[in-house]
Amino acid sequence: MRPASTHDAIVIGAGPAGTSAALALARRGWTVAIVEKSVFPRRKVCGEYISASNLALLERLEIVDAWRAEAGPEIRRVGFFSGDTSVEAPMPRAKSVPATGDGFGRALGRDVLDSLLLDAARSAGADVFQPCRAVAIERNGVCQAVRIQAGARNSPDEATILRAPVIVAAHGSWEPGPLPSQLGKKGHPSDLLGFKAHFSGSTLPPDLMPLLTFPGGYGGMVLADHGRMSLSCCIRRDMLARLRGNLARKHGGQVSAAEAVEHHLRATCEGARKALQEASLDGPWLAAGPIRPGIRTGYDGDIFRVGNIAGESHPIIAEGISMALQSGWLLARELGTAGCGQAKREAVGRRYEAAWRELFSTRVLAAEAIARIAIGPGGGAMMRAVVRNFPQVLTMGARLSGKTRAAPGFG
Ligand SMILES: Cc1cc2nc3c(=O)[nH]c(=O)nc-3n(C[C@H](O)[C@H](O)[C@H](O)COP(=O)(O)OP(=O)(O)OC[C@H]3O[C@@H](n4cnc5c(N)ncnc54)[C@H](O)[C@@H]3O)c2cc1C
């Protein structure tokens, strides 16, 4: 006899993609399991800015009031800090926001946002397995079996098996692992490594979100919740190694990656240096990556993918949370009501992939082009010349990156 399913759907990962999919499915009457390896609340490498284009979706997920109560100030200006250049321009206002809405994005720490979303999914009836790591996905008759391990990575705890016809991979793209939906290891000099820290006491204007460019990378700054300024950036692996070597020779002894990154930012970007002048680190620097920008697949091997693992834009446009939230919602919309045989899953997979590409391809490609220029030789100088003379390109870039485009079904 075949073992019965434990759920209608199993979602692996409780970032914004996994929780929005789980929440939307649970509200449609699905029995959903969410498997998350980390204990929440947890900080995460992320700039934490969310475009106002998500407000209607957050309202539908019934977390918009909590989000508004917690998030930092409205971001009404987009900026550009590079070398000694600091330029600002208006942030375009998003259309189709809820009646009470404002049309401007805000930043909320991932420790707060992800907990908020997971609590909402739990309240909607999702079973949460946490801290539990999904370590294998196997076909098992009409169901698929997900093997999960409780506790820390190498804990000897016994594995549990969950079974469902629908499997949703929402585990992000930065960590290699044994699941068929996870990406392989990467180790090239041109890889981009992600860093992030919170600072308190920053003098960054509260309504301004500047893009930072510096030799070998790019980043961003924004005031988030509780007066915390979120500073995040990506830097080439080879540049980071060079910086660490130079600093170690200069000062003697080992220099951490985070020390090298912070030193580099302060030394090469005047706007960042000024914003950090009176600021103090609030918690440790975090590192992740390499990041894996690109368009991948939404459905393969009978596993649906949402968020970063379906496709990822360079964080230079700060749209990853939007794409995660919206892709989870999009998949749940295509899945509809519970009950999902293989033929239905394949049809849903095709429709979901087509909708994903329609909605996100432009911003992934735009982000790729901007990032290439920012990091490429002479790119910083070229960007400084263009932005100084035409500050309106910052507003245009924000529009092109999807900041005003409503989530699917909310336009
Ligand atoms: C430097 C930097 C700055 C950024 N700034 C912004 C920004 O300002 N705005 C923005 O919108 N986006 C930003 N992004 C992008 C954004 O962080 C990501 O796109 C977003 O987190 C993707 O969400 P996700 O749900 O797909 O994956 P994640 O947020 O990565 O969540 C995946 C979850 O899955 C869990 N998991 C992984 N493997 C397993 C497993 N085997 N079993 C169980 N659980 C597992 C993880 O613990 C994690 O909680 C930034 C990215 C970087 C690198």
From TrEMBL:
Gene3D superfamilies: FAD/NAD(P)-binding domain. SUPFAM superfamilies: FAD/NAD(P)-binding domain. One of its GO terms (molecular function) is FAD binding. It comes from the Bacteria. It comes from Mesorhizobium plurifarium. Signal peptide: none annotated. Residues 8-174 form the FAD-binding domain. This is FAD-dependent pyridine nucleotide-disulfide oxidoreductase. InterPro entries: FAD-bd, FAD/NAD-bd_sf, Geranylgeranyl_reductase.
